């Protein structure tokens, strides 16, 4: 797959299909990007499980924090990586040990590792690199336009309400 650009349908399909997200590198510090992405995704109705060895056993935004992916006692739909690209191969090793495998491996803005992505894709996992699910959700739902940002998505369709705070959901196309 070409990871230089993603079709909106690909991203929308992912955001509409995942329910449980493990966030590797989640922070308890409320000024860190991982904290407000976690908060946003929780508000949109996703079940987000923070992964942070330093916070394991404690709660972040009311969610139990785990030391590693393999500690999570339930299936994961998506792994969201908030770590440096150099950490990605080890995270993919851990992802590939999960049973069942997650549907999606998502690397945050500035995080890209093509070799690790190819290994995940070879196992049947969809991969997104150098993107933020919070930004993509806001863009595809139209919410990002509320702040005056051009989403690049035009639609005259009435928004479909989903559960969550001011959540319109993501349109396929």
From TrEMBL:
<protein>
    <submittedName>
        <fullName>CoA-binding protein</fullName>
    </submittedName>
</protein>
<dbReference type="InterPro" id="IPR036291">
    <property type="entry name" value="NAD(P)-bd_dom_sf"/>
</dbReference>
<dbReference type="Pfam" id="PF13380">
    <property type="entry name" value="CoA_binding_2"/>
</dbReference>
<dbReference type="InterPro" id="IPR003781">
    <property type="entry name" value="CoA-bd"/>
</dbReference>
<feature type="domain" description="CoA-binding">
    <location>
        <begin position="14"/>
        <end position="111"/>
    </location>
</feature>
